[in-house]
Specification:
Elements: H1 3-23, H2 29-44, E1 48-54, E2 61-66, H3 74-81, H4 83-93, E3 95-99, E4 110-117, E5 124-132, H5 136-149, H6 152-183, H7 188-202, E6 207-214, E7 217-223, H8 234-249, E8 253-255, H9 266-275, E9 279-287, E10 290-299, H10 306-330, H11 333-349, H12 354-372, E11 374-387, E12 390-394, E13 399-404, E14 411-412, E15 417-421, H13 424-449, H14 453-478, E16 481-483, E17 488-492, E18 502-503, E19 508-513, E20 518-525, H15 529-532, E21 537-542, E22 550-557, E23 569-576, E24 589-600, H16 601-617
Antiparallel strand pairs: 1-2, 1-5, 3-4, 4-5, 6-7, 6-10, 8-9, 9-10, 11-20, 11-24, 12-19, 13-15, 13-18, 14-17, 15-16, 17-19, 20-23, 21-22, 21-24, 22-23
């Protein structure tokens, strides 16, 4: 008996030391609570402890009993049945001490000790103890000990929260430094390299690699402290395979895999074995909700801790939007247009197999349009602008060109001078012929006065000859200037470089055509002439002014085909429905399209091929 107080004091000291240690405990709650209950049990000498908790308005839950296994007894049974009642009372008053059975209260009776635990959480929590074989004074002293020990969980949670806050601040500070470095870059590859180098430096990684989703596969884009690399190397291909394993699962993969890991890490294990890397960690980078890239970290020194994984997750989450934006901006405009189109189309027809669905939809609509849509069909051919009246201006006599008053393309009026021949020699001939005429007339008068009839007849004949020569000379002088026979345009005959050159009689010097009587002469291939028969309208477009269209009306179709180099053609004369334009000239050409009727797009696109096959396969 003398040793009992000493033993009891020793257990109390141990319990108090344990509570002091628990106030600074850094472990997990699942390790804290058993040790706390053991210390309270030693401190109060209780038979049983029960930890109760509940959310506001809900029934109590028994979180933990200590000791876990107790022999069945009537006292324990009564204790357990009264737990909820005394827990409600203790929660209202902060603590409760009462006899288990008021009729048997005393040294041999049991007591209920209940105290509220102040925790930094939304749940309400109480600790209930069953003590027996004690006097009421001792029980009250044990109750005081229990109330004093009840502050330990609150202190533990406060210290745990403070440490977590410090860790979060450190983690956030490190990630902010990394994000600031990444955000300073303006190009995608430079940003990716800054991210890999920053993570490799801060987390003491031997190598950090970034792969980006491209064409359905992960393509290696950056490796820390490596500017150039060959994607065809076995190491690079193994890296991409491991990254695809992460991307397919959309979850981080750690190697060696934890015991409770649910992700597949087969490719990571193969990569670690081939490259002799003991520790790996790969994390997906997401743009929105979809993964678009993978960051893979390699380290030789130690495995990645949970805090490091949290920092890596936060860093990837902050860097991925910046990387995605720069990746989009660095693409050429066609790729950006395709990505935007796919995103917009994905909202309507689903994000999976978007292009395949769009292609199927386009093909279906195209087939319907080809079969059902009927559009005007027109036969195409070449045309030439011709004139009904064309005048050939020839040299009236042999001579030399003196002046050129018009050139091809000039519009001329009726009787306007075109070319003037030299008349100096003709004027001399005119003078000689006039002198001879006067001389022979005087000789005839002299012979008449002398009654020399024969001489008079000879002189008169010579005078008539001189008069005829004079008239011929004057006629040539009058026609030495070649004039336009009508209003028109010069279409041929550039004589500006032939000034002074001789010309022969009837030699063509210029061609003048009327432009108010222009018409269209179209050439239609014989394979299409049956489509034009019975039709009357069409349009033309000149080579020089293709943007302008002019309506024409079919007048006549030549009955015989004209052979050409490529195929036989029929000549069709068409009248222009509009006024003749000032810039039109005979000989201008272009494309003529004669309207037939409405046909389906499928027929228009395939009838040439079908006709060809019919001719080739016909037997």
């Amino acid at each position: 008996m003398p040793d009992q107080p000493a033993a009891s004091l020793s257990s109390i000291d141990v319990a108090l030391n344990e509570l002091v240690l628990l106030r600074q405990f850094t472990g997990a709650p699942k390790d804290f609570w058993p040790r706390f209950l053991v210390a309270v049990l030693q401190l109060t000498q209780a038979d049983k402890l029960v930890l109760l908790a509940r959310k506001s308005g809900q029934p109590w839950r028994r979180l933990m009993d200590w000791p876990g296994e107790t022999p069945p007894s009537k006292m324990v049974t009564v204790f357990l049945t009264q737990l909820e009642t005394v827990a409600n009372q203790a929660l209202a008053s902060g603590g409760l001490l009462q006899a288990l059975d008021p009729k048997s209260a005393g040294a041999s009776g049991g007591y209920l000790l209940v105290t509220r635990l102040e925790l930094q959480q939304q749940e309400e929590c109480v600790l209930a103890a069953l003590v027996s074989e004690m006097s009421e004074a001792v029980v009250r002293e044990r109750f005081v000990r229990m109330r004093l020990a009840a502050t330990t969980p609150e202190v533990y949670q406060g210290n745990l929260g403070a440490r977590q806050a410090r860790a979060d601040v450190e983690k956030f500070s490190s990630v902010l430094d990394l994000t600031a470095t990444v955000s300073a870059e303006k190009r995608f590859l430079a940003t990716a390299m800054a991210l890999c180098n920053g993570i490799a430096t801060r987390f003491k990684c031997d190598r950090v690699s970034l792969g980006w989703l491209q064409g359905g596969f992960v393509r290696l884009k950056a490796i820390s402290h490596t500017e150039k690399f060959d994607r065809q190397m076995a190491a690079a291909q193994d890296l991409e395979t491991a990254m695809e394993e992460t991307l397919d699962q959309d979850d981080e993969v750690v190697w060696p895999a934890p015991e409770d890991a649910s992700v597949i890490s087969r490719d990571h294990a193969r990569f670690a074995e081939n490259q002799k890397v003991p520790f790996l960690c790969s994390l997906p980078l997401r743009a929105g909700e979809a993964p678009v890239a993978v960051l893979l970290c390699e380290r030789q020194s130690a495995a990645f801790t949970e805090l490091e994984l949290q920092q890596l997750r936060l860093g990837c989450d902050l860097a991925s939007p910046r990387l995605a934006d720069l990746r989009y901006q660095d693409l050429w405009f066609g790729a950006r247009w395709a990505i935007t189109a796919r995103q917009n189309l994905g909202r309507w027809i689903g994000p999976e197999h978007t292009w395949a669905k769009v292609l199927a939809l386009v093909i279906t609509v195209a087939l319907l349009l080809l079969v059902c849509l009927r559009v005007p069909y027109r036969v195409e051919g070449n045309f030439t602008l011709r004139s009904d009246e064309l005048s050939y201006q020839t040299a009236p006599f042999e001579g030399f060109i003196d002046q050129v008053l018009a050139r091809p393309g000039d519009r001329v009026l009726s009787n306007a001078p075109l070319v003037k021949l030299k008349t100096a020699e003709l004027e001399l001939e005119e003078s000689f012929a006039l002198a001879d005429l006067n001389r022979y007339q005087r000789e005839a008068e002299k012979a008449r006065a002398a009654h020399a009839l024969a001489d008079m007849r000879i002189a008169e004949a010579l005078a008539e000859e001189s008069r005829a020569r004079l008239e011929t000379t004057r006629y040539r002088i009058a026609h030495a200037t070649i004039r336009s026979p009508f209003d028109g345009v010069v279409v041929e005959g550039d004589l500006r470089e032939h000034l002074g050159a001789p010309v022969k009689t009837a030699e063509v010097l210029m061609k003048v055509a009327r432009i108010d009587t222009l018409y269209v002469e179209a050439e239609i291939n014989e394979r299409d002439i049956h489509e034009v028969l019975g039709k009357s309208s069409g349009e033309i477009a000149f080579v020089s002014q293709p943007k302008l269209k002019f309506a024409v009306r079919i007048q006549t179709i030549e009955q015989a085909a004209m052979p050409k180099t490529e195929a036989n053609v029929f000549l069709i004369r068409c009248a222009v429905q509009q006024a003749v334009q000032p810039w039109w000239r005979p000989g201008m050409s272009g494309v003529c399209k004669l309207s037939v009727e409405k046909r389906s797009l499928l027929w228009i696109l395939t009838h040439r091929t079908i006709d060809f096959l019919r001719l080739k396969l016909w037997w």
